[in-house]
Amino acid sequence: MANRSRVRPGRHLFFALVAACALLLGVIPGASASTGSKSSLWPKFSTPQVIYTVDVQNLNAADLLTATTLQGVYNGQNRPSRLYLISQSDDTTWLSQIPSTIHVKQLDSTGNVLQKLLARFKPFIHGAVETNASNVDTNNLATTMAGLDRAVVISPSQESLVSGLGIKVLYSFNTAEFTADNNVQTYQWGIDNLLPKSSTRLLVMLPGGMPNHIRDYAAATGAFMFYLTSTDAAQKAVMDTIIAHTPANTPIMGYIPNEGPDVADLSSLGHFLNASDFLNNETVWASMPSPTALKESTEPAPIKAQPNTVYVAFEVSDGDNAQYMQHRMRDLWQDPNLGAIPEGWTVAPATVEFAPSLLSYYNKRLPKNSELVAGPSGIGYSTQMSGSDLANFAQLTAQALHRVDIKTVDDWESLGNLQTYAQASKVPSISVNAPLAEQQIGDTTVMGQTSGYIPSPQQEFCTVIQQSAGKQAQQPLFLEPLVDGWNLDPTDVLHIAQQLALAGQKAGVHYVFTTPTELALTMRRYYADQEAGLPSGNAQSVSGEQALKKTIVSPPYSSGPVTVTGSNLVTNPSGANGTDGWTTAGPDRSGDATLTAATYQGGPALHWTDTTTTLQDWIHFYPAVQNGHTYTFSADLAGSGQVFIDVWTGGGDLQTIPVNLTSAYQTLTWTATIPSDAPTGQTGQAPQIQIRESAIGPVDTYIRNASVAESTSPC
């Protein structure tokens, strides 16, 4: 029953640089130091004169592992040429982004491709490291050792192949010591024998059973490679020891087993994740020159917020994954309706260093009415940094965003760290993955995403319709829904926008679609009462009427007013029966929350106070709902602080837009259908109505007329 899930449905500074480069030189005999600016956190390589491509799509896993480590070890030597593996179709597509000054040549991909590769590149390797077929984690240790000793990784089945080519096996994990598939013991051996020699500039996490992708980068840089989770105590101890080998704000490439807890763990240790587990040919992309600066074609600017108008900024998810940028996002950008509606496309700004060709591709092709946004949480994915580590992380993010002309960052850090992040980064706009009403922190506008991952366009439409219905009469409303980048495309966004515009015509509400930065700038001027002279629209806004001039996308979506058809299932709606049925809950168990029955404005009310400023706590009531039925959840709220209603359906959280409380009651409402498989009863994970705080300061809240009643659906 947390906030909208932060887990995707489908993921210091420079003081150690010189020492890290020296270590890298020492453990890869004959290799050149990584190039690139000394401010780069990511190892880079010299720009090649020639790139040799080879098709490895027909290789089995063992052969692909060998080819990938050969690629990494060779490319890491900074020779005039690089090896580029075509392991899937879009690897060929991306070759168009290689500068014309670099010659691209194809190697023979017929017959025994691996044998031909080993024979050709044998002079540039010192031998082979053999894995243990019973223990996939030895693939990671072998990759680490291969990077340190300039070797390739082989399986026991390839012994005769390398022997026939005169390649010596330098070390074999194919012994009884490693037969048991015990990752704790395996990586403890790595800590004892390999970690002290490994690079302190980078760590790589990847399942041992994945033979390619980011693995070439680990082999090229001498990085320690592992795959452990913080959700297991024994694994966490080993994992944290490995992470501690590198200074704070060291990138961790690849991905983790359990997104939420593992990102929290590594970021609590001062590190961040660059999601890149399916990123191909990284050693080639890290060889491409990084631009000094990028510039987007349109400068975002505020518009004048009109009454009775809903302003919507769609933010597309998951661009912080470099592999998403390389694969899924490129497919989405072939959609004929790209740019029909303004969108904020999240990207990984750190790719300006470790994969500049990817970022440049999107920067050059960005529609004039859209923008790039920094994905979670800036230069990397972090959720639990604190203190000087967080401040440094925020400053590094600001430097990167300024360089690539990005104005908004999608911040998934704890809300309790929002002040530190905003003050250290000074970015113009922060979008947080949590319910949060607009606020200003210095020169930074902070806004909360108004919906999370929603997999269908109709559900996204319905969410915005409900939020629009709750706006105050004759006032503008500002919404920033997340667009699920794995399931929705630009045509879906156009479909949603058109259906909103049509529904608005029936309800007498106007819609205007903007970018996230333009939305933030517009909100800031509106709430500061500084709108004089502003236009009602500009190059990065599209009105509902303009959206309807484009070819209408089918099918139509129905929507209408909600009609309550049942009785109130909240048996104690205003505290007339004390606090009967209501309970305090949430992550903070310090005892600073109180819940009592009170009198407010001449009538009974529940009175909830919580002095917590960093954790999202709540009070809740279990209504006797029926699975598969639709209910309207509502309550009148007054007092001080920022709160919202959270509907826990038994399968997920649905939330109203947060409000800043005043002495006058405000009514919040949300209508939801209870899943057919929701837990039953009135305990545990069964459906609830919750009154939650936004975790940005204390709350002193009065609640009356809480209601859960069966109703019609709004759409």
What layout of secondary structure does this protein have?
Layout: H1 17-27, E1 50-55, H2 61-75, E2 81-86, H3 89-94, E3 103-106, H4 113-121, E4 127-130, H5 137-149, E5 151-154, H6 159-164, E6 169-172, H7 183-193, E7 203-205, H8 215-221, E8 224-226, H9 233-243, E9 251-254, H10 259-268, E10 272-275, H11 282-285, E11 309-316, H12 322-326, H13 328-332, E12 343-347, H14 351-354, H15 356-365, E13 371-374, H16 387-404, E14 408-411, H17 418-425, E15 429-432, E16 439-441, E17 444-448, H18 457-469, E18 477-479, E19 482-483, H19 490-507, E20 510-514, H20 516-527, E21 541-543, H21 544-548, E22 582-585, E23 593-600, E24 603-610, E25 618-621, E26 630-640, E27 642-648, E28 653-655, E29 659-660, E30 666-673, E31 688-693, E32 699-710
Parallel strand pairs: 1-2, 1-3, 4-5, 4-6, 7-8, 7-9, 9-10, 11-12, 11-18, 11-19, 11-20, 12-13, 14-15, 15-17
Antiparallel strand pairs: 16-17, 20-21, 22-25, 23-24, 24-32, 25-31, 26-30, 26-32, 27-28, 27-29, 27-31
Helix pairs in contact: 2-4, 2-5, 2-8, 5-8, 7-9, 16-17, 18-19
Overview of the structural elements:
With 715 residues, the protein is α/β, with parallel strands linked by helices. The protein has 3 domains: 17-285, no CATH class; 309-548, TIM Barrel (Alpha-Beta Barrel); 582-710, Galactose-binding domain-like (Jelly Rolls). Helices cover 28% and strands 23% of the residues. It is built from 21 helices and 32 strands. Strands 11, 12, 13, 18, 19, 20 and 21 form a 7-stranded mixed β-sheet that branches. Helix 2 packs parallel to helix 8 (215-221). The longest helix has 18 residues, at 387-404. The protein starts with 16 loop residues before the first helix and ends in a 5-residue tail after the last strand. The model is unreliable at 1-7 and 10-38 (pLDDT under 50).
